[in-house]
Structure formats: structure tokens, C-alpha cells
Amino acid sequence: MTKEQQLKQEILDKTKEYYELVHKKNQTKPFVSGQSRVNYAGRVFDEKEMVNLVDSSLDFWLTYGDYSKKFEKELATFLHVRWAFLVNSGSSANLLAFYALTSPLLKERQVKHGDEVITVAAGFPTTVAPIVQYGAVPVFVDMELKHFNIDVTQLEQALSPKTKAVMIAHTLGNPFDIKAVKAFCDKHNLWLIEDNCDALGSTYEGKLTGTWGDIGTSSFYPPHHMTMGEGGATYTDNPLLKKIMLSMRDWGRDCWCESGVDNTCGCRFTQKFGTLPKGYDHKYVYSHFGFNLKATDMQAAVGCAQLKKFPSFVEKRKENFKKLYEGLKDVHELTLVETQPLSDPSWFGFMMTLTRDAKFTRNDLVEYLENNNIQTRNLFAGNMLRHPLFEALTQDTDYRVVGTFPNTDKIMNDSFWIGLYPGMGDEAIAYMIQKIREFLSKNC
Question: Single Gene Ontology BP term (predicted)?
């Protein structure tokens, strides 16, 4: 072992020691009813993430590198897809996925300005933002209140000659009706982007969500199913979409050389592009108006360690969901989310909605829970159309709506969810059930 290798090993050994001394106690801290904070989500890690992170930092390769390539390969293997691309966030993953559909390389299937994309208003804004930012037209349909996903009966009504794609999320890990949505897209030759940021590890008919459509997206922000701090990914089996996403992620360049590598094609100075002079450096030829959405190798290093733990994370989420459901299923004032038929969700959260029998408001209940150290969340934007960001847009020009949105508004007014992430033990689950039932006994 060289002196450099010996010193590096000492540093990594000390990193393990530091985890044991500083972080492990927080990861294994016993739950104290009424005192411990029950967060809706959180990081679950050990010394392996920290060792990978420090190992990467010592190499000081600050951009896309060996850990990034390893992560992409292992994520693609896990998902049973051909390609996965690491990006700097789930929002960037949605941006890249949608903008890939705007590439001229797609010819008659290219999404152009003014073309329409079917989506929903109940969810996270960055599922819709890229559509608006590009100048396409989102077409909003309502939700259903059993599985809290898109109402597929409205898809045909939303269709127009301008429709080019469907872009929707699997709500809190519960797959939408993929069979119906996929059949609709296939029938009308539409692209399907699955926002899989809240559903990594969920399956539908035994096949992982995010892999049914043309492109899937994931987020690795700390509350999500696995984390690398900031980070996300897109994935696909389509060779042309793979080429486009790689270009758009990396500045829009035509060259496919990795960072720090030149002349992979062997003809860097011999090709002709556009009206550029023949032999113009292929490293600086651009075929798309792209972005720089790459993550760092240090983030990928953390992701590589998380991915090894990921199957156990999914199982723990399923166990916690089952315990919450069993503990609250007889409560008449709350409608609990039901599992989408044919699916096995990797749950992100536990969704509840007030019934007509409730003699209290959603905020009454969530404030009680928050005051008892239980963190709660609404279903993100609730009804995006009611937010200030739509005030600058004109209906039927910048966006379309299909009918009214009674269910979306019901979610906005009466729904909320609590956590079930893998770091949550039985005591925390029991405490949440206890406090919800305690509130109901006092207010019903």
C-alpha cells in the first residue's frame, strides 16, 4: 500500500468513527411519546454514505465522474431499463424529460409551442412547470378520491388535435391507473411521462412504475425514497430519447464525450454540421438549446450507498402503511387512500381526507397534530389553478381545463398526509394513530 493509499484509508476509517460518535445516536435515538418529533420524512443513512462521500471528495473530481456512471448503471439495472441519467434534482428531471419531447429529432411527434399536454392540478408544480415554461398548453383534468390519482374517464374529453403527451405523477407512491392511461396514449400516439418522484419502487402488474411510459423521473431530495441531498434522474428504453436527453442535460451539445474525455467518436475535427465550417470542433457543436443539469460525483457517491439499502426502504414503507391503515380504517370521519388495483405501492405518505361526517376542518386536525409534534403535509399545491402563478396566464390560451374540479378542490380543502418513512419505528406509528383518534374522540 502506498503512502497515499494508507493515508486515504486512515481518513475513511476516521469517517466511520465519526459517524459512530456523532450521527449514529441520532439515527438510533429511542422514541419518546409526546417529546420526540415525528417528521413526515427524513434521511436514513449510516457510515457507508459518509465513507463514499469522503472518498469522492478526496478524489476531488467535482462534476460527473466514476460514481455518477456507477449510479446510473445500477439505477438502470434496478429499474430494468436501458438508460438512466443523473441530474441535479427531481424538478430538473421533469424539465429534462419534457424538453426532450420538444426536440426536432422527433419530427412529427415533436411537441411544439401551442401543443397540448394532459395533466392534473393536484400535485407538485414542477410536474406542470416545464410545459408552461416551454410554451405548450397544459390541459387539466380532475382527480378521483379513492386512489387520489387522475380521473381516467376524462382523458378522451381532454383530447384535441393538438394533444401530444400526458405528463402526470403517481400520487404519494400510489400508481395511477397505468393500464387505462397507457391504452389512451397508445391509441392516440401520445408520449407518456411518468413523474415517479414519489413512487420509486412501486409496481403495477409487477412492473416498476416509471418504466411504463416513454420517460420516467425520480427525485433524490432528502424526504424522498432515497437521497443524495439534491439530485434526480430520468430513465428510458427509447434510444432516440436517450440521445436527446444526454444532449439536453449537457448544454445541448451534439458531442457525447464524457467530462474530461475528448474525441470519443474518433472524428472530432472531420465532420460537417449546419453551416459551420467543415471540421469544426465537435466538442462545441450544439444540436439543442439545452441546460447544464448534471449532479456532482459526491452526490452520486451518496446515492450509490443508498441504492444498496433501497429495497429495505421500500419494504419498511409498506409495513408502516399497513400499520397506519389498520389503526385508522374504522374511523368514519376520515377516508383513507386505497391501493390502486393491480399495484403494490412503495408509499411516500399516508393520505387522509375528511368525510362529510366530520364536524371539524382539516386545519383543526392538522394543527392538533402539529402541536403534538406530528408533522403533516397537504397534497402539495392542492389545486394549482388557484395559486398566484396562474394569475398571469389566460384560460383557453395558456392552459385549458376539462369541466369543473370538485375532487381537486376537495383534496385542496380536506386532505392531508402524514409520514411513514423507513426511519419511523412502531412507537412513532402508534403515537400518530393515538393522537388522531384522541382528536376525533374530542371533536366528534
Answer: polysaccharide biosynthetic process
Within 13 A of 312's CA, how many CA atoms are on the CB side?
A: 8
* Residues near 332 by beta carbon (within 8 Å), at least 6 away in sequence: 355, 357
Confidence of residue 437 (pLDDT cuts 50, 70, 90): very high
Q: How far apart are the first and last CA of the chain?
A: 71
Count CA atoms closer than 13 A to 178's CA, side-chain side.
29
> Residues 6 or more apart from 293 whose CB is under 8 A from it?
87, 88, 92, 95, 96, 248, 249
Q: Delimit the domains of the chain by residue range.
A: 1-16+39-254+290-443
282 is catalytic: no
Q: Is the pTM of this model over 0.90?
A: yes
Pick the CATH number of 1-16+39-254+290-443 from 3.40.50.2000, 3.40.640.10, 1.20.950.20, 3.30.420.40: 3.40.640.10
Single out the catalytic residue among 147, 224, 225, 288. Answer: 224
